[in-house]
Amino acid sequence: MIMKKQLFKLLKKCFLSGLFFVLMGMQYSFAQQTVTGTITDENDSPVPGANVLVRGTTTGTQTDFDGNYSIEASPEDVLVISYLGYATQNISVRDQTTINVKLQTDQQQLDEVVVIGYGTVKKTDLTGSVSRVDSKAFENQPLTRVEEALQGRAAGVTVAKANGAPGANVKVRIRGVNSITGNNDPLVVVDGILGGDLSTINPNDIAAMDVLKDASATAIYGVRGSNGVIIITTKKGSGKGKINIDYFTTISQVPSLLPTLADIPDDFARLENIRRVNTGGSPVFTDAEISELAANGGTNYQDEILRTGYSENIQLSASGSEGSLRYFLSGNFRDEEGIVINTGYQQLSLRSNLEAQITDRFKVGLNLYASHGEIQNNFQTFGNGQGSLIYKANTWDPSTPVFDADGNYNNRSIKGIGSLNQNPVLTLTGSDFEDVEERLQSALNLSYDITDNLNFTMVAGTQLSNYNIQRYANEGPNEIPDVSFSNNKNTSYQLSNILTWQKEFGKHDIKLTGVQEYQNRKAKFNSYNANDLALPNGFYFAELAPNAGQTVFNNFGERELSSWMLRAEYILDDNLLITATGRYDGTSVFRPGNQWGFFPSVAIAYNLNGLVENSETLSAFKLRAGWGQVGNQGIADFGTNAFLTSNSYAFDGSSAGPGTILNPRFAFENLDLTWETTTQVNVGIDLGLWNGRGSLSIDGYQKNTTDLLLETPLSGTLGTGITRQNVGEVENFGIDVAVGYDILDGEDLNWNSNFAFSYVKNEVTNLYGGLDQIEGSVTAPGGQSRVVNIIQLGQPLGQFNGATFLGTWKSSEAAAAAAVGKAPGDAKYLRGDDGEIVFGAIGNGTPTTTWGWNNTLNYKNFDLNFFLQGVHGFDVYNIMQAGITGGAGDSRSFMAIDQVNQWTPSNETDIPSTVQLFNSSRYVEKGDFIRLSNLTLGYTFRDVVGIDTIKLYAGGQNLFLITDFSGYDPEITSRRTNQGIEDVAPGINFGAYPNPRTYTLGIKVGF
């Protein structure tokens, strides 16, 4: 009986509840109204297929072909308007019956967030030090290299060209240099795939670049982030289909030739006669020959190998979205002629970015990128042992013409003077060097929202790189031809599993990101070389002469990296922001017991917007601080092992047999090698100015790298060679400043200006074995074998080594000069108490200050971009100038213009009249410069015969250079690649390929 009563009460409650909901539903239906409207994009074009949904219900519709929609909704409802590729908008209905909506593309969403690795964060919620460069910053500058888009636009990032050759290396450093013998390149992440190569990426494919600078930001990538991280997000399609074509052609020229005596060959001949007599010889030119040179001139080999280069670049892209699929397809072809004869570069690249929204919770993306690049006669491969070809051209005998009377090349100087090397015109025209790089990259992204708060993302990527080098050097008559072929094949794959949970609890916002990641890379190298080889039928039909020399070299490397990472982000009331990260990395390059390293970081920020809410100047105010550690595994794949090499030895005392010996360069293993660790502290302030019209960010940091993976020499009892040890420390202290402001913000006239400033002071704070300096490995050309760089305790990396030049010995100092074996007119150097020349630090090639000022002006259909950059606080070791001054070795003749005013008994100047040292302070110059990197003016025609836009533009790059440097350009340097890393030998110029001045004319068409 009791159970029946309880059942009756339950049924009664259910009935009353059901009746209540029915009545509420009737009330809801009675309150509904018809809402109509049109959905358009940012160009006011209708958006067909846009979703219009009543939030919290399944009631929804889609726009028709003209972007129109109609839906039933109540005043209390909120309409959710969405379309793939556009920002979702939520609009309250209230009493509106017509609601028109203009969608904004996700590119604008992208501008509001920063990619911080395995996720994004709003700019306002950022705790670490991150610089963003989006495509708007460089879209009006005709670029062929990604590095040029970074140069001067990201505070804390230093970008320097190795030289002006097409396809040449460009050095990128973030907040100074950490390692002395290891790699200092930043990690490049492209669409989530680690290990990208900036030189191969098409700048037109890039939507934005985020540069992670402090350890609280870079620790997310652990051992890969020790030198900073550049995260590249490529473009994605959205909205209606678009086709864009961008074509520009460029004329390149050397800004000016170096002044040499090749322009006044009769003076060259007179000075050569004097030089010969002063060294105990006889004159080499007769008076008749000097008169003929004065009347008819000589040959300027600098002018003979330099030319005007013509280049072209074409970019095509198609983008948009169809239903749940969004796409971006692009192709780029560039063909660049170098300003040095028979040099150039060609590249073809293709990209396909596809993204499909399979369901409301499941999204799939597939990015493919392929590129093929060919360098014609890579300038660095011609050998700098006796100087580059620019060096040789500037020191070659101007009295010897390129061809003899029979039309054959003059292989060497007729009189055996000037440069003793081969005719540089013959070297360039008779050589066929071809460097080919092929790359294929793929990235598969799967994203699934497990719940509204929990997301799982998988990123799987592969990279394949083939670098083939095919070289044939025909050294001319009576010379031995040399042929070589090598292949460097790298394959890698990556699998990243990312789990992200985020939830808001009132004033609390918590986000957790966990990552499990695995990477594997294999490298195979094969090299074959032969001399005395003829190629009458081409490279692949070579004829090997009897007894010709042959060499074969093969190598293999592999490394694995396994990682676990957890990042926690906490926001309290949109004011207090905390980010903590821990990454645990294991690498195969170290031995068991040393393979795993833990790298933590923490950052905190606080928004003080309440203090400035009534300010007319400040609209935002945030303070930031961070600390973190990152590691570096920068040694060879088998760098802890002893290195062996093949050799022949007569084991039986008579006939030699093959065997192996310890390699003299890496003689001994070191089983205890472990991580090089960089610890960084960062403090910063971010200000919003004049209601968001301007912004200012200032960061100060100190970065210490300890346990350097340093190559150290073996003690005498152990033999020759080196080994790696965890010794030494390097410190970087610096300040980054970024300022942006809309100077003009009118209806027809706009002027946006951005300024980036960086100061960094580098210092070696500890070496090994109590040493206060280490000798470098870069030697002067010409057979002198003098080392021109050192690593010095208490000083920045990049110290020059040489003698201190004091002018010339004067006649009044004849006795003192004779005491050290010299005579009046000879070069005078600082000497010690023992009478020997003192060699030491005489300059430094590492800049301390860089800045860039980027400006974009728009007036109606006109747009103007000008970009200035400056680099300060560094020297250049101008060995090129030493060569033309007659520094000895293979270039003993005087070619410098000022040599006409050299020391004589009646004119005792400080210009020596005899051979001098290459490496002395006489050839150290200030390298500071200011450059107009870009000036481009464009005009856009709109809606022309069915074409959306046609833009015509013209401009120039490297239009002027303000500097006291006497060479071509203080930014470019040259050194042999086997002489240590470039960061311990910056600013050394052995005759670098000149940086060209370019003039550009182009057209952009949008359909």
TrEMBL record:
SUPFAM superfamilies: Carboxypeptidase regulatory domain-like (SSF49464), Porins (SSF56935). InterPro entries: Beta-barrel_TonB_sf (IPR036942), CarboxyPept-like_regulatory (IPR008969), Plug_dom (IPR012910), Plug_dom_sf (IPR037066), TonB-dep_OMP_SusC/RagA (IPR023996), TonB-dep_OMP_SusC/RagA_CS (IPR023997), TonB-dep_rcpt-like (IPR039426). It holds the Pfam family Plug. Its main location: membrane. One of its GO terms (cellular component) is cell outer membrane. It is found in: Cell outer membrane. The keyword Oxidoreductase does not apply. Residues 1-31 form the signal peptide. Residues 123-229 form the TonB-dependent receptor plug domain. Keywords: Cell outer membrane, Membrane, Receptor, Signal, Transmembrane, Transmembrane beta strand, Transport. It is a multi-pass membrane protein. Belongs to the TonB-dependent receptor family. This is TonB-dependent receptor. It comes from Maribacter algarum (ex Zhang et al. 2020).
